[in-house]
């Protein structure tokens, strides 16, 4: 049985199992692979549709991908700033 790779997660500030893959085939993908845990990535996967839906992002366009990458950089703590507001309203009850 393979032992999962461990990273010190920049988002969650603890040593946790790492991503088993690079999420993007570029420098940012490597940054995530080296510094973000699988748990933090799963948090982002639940969060990202709020941005995609609110801003009707076209992830086929450079503008859409750049916007989402900026939100990711802020979410994971690679960049200072505030996350963009979303139209998400939690369900009550």
TrEMBL record:
UniProt GO BP: cellular response to oxidative stress
Sorted UniProt keywords: Iron
The keyword Iron appears for this protein: yes
Source domain of life: Bacteria
An annotated Gene Ontology molecular function: iron ion binding
GO cellular component: cytosol
A Pfam family per the record: Iron_traffic
NCBIfam families xrefs: PRK05408.1
Name under which the protein is recorded: Fe-S cluster biosynthesis and repair protein YggX
Organism ancestry: Bacteria, Pseudomonadati, Myxococcota, Polyangia, Nannocystales
């Amino acid at each position: 049985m393979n032992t999962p790779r461990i990273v010190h997660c920049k988002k969650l500030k603890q040593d946790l199992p790492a991503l088993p893959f690079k999420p993007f085939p570029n420098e940012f993908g490597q940054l995530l692979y080296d510094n973000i845990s699988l748990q933090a990535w799963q948090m982002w996967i639940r969060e990202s549709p709020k941005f995609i839906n609110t801003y009707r992002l076209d992830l086929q366009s450079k503008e859409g991908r750049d916007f989402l990458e900026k939100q990711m950089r802020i979410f994971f703590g690679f960049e200072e700033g505030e996350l963009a507001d979303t139209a998400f309203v939690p369900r009550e009850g």
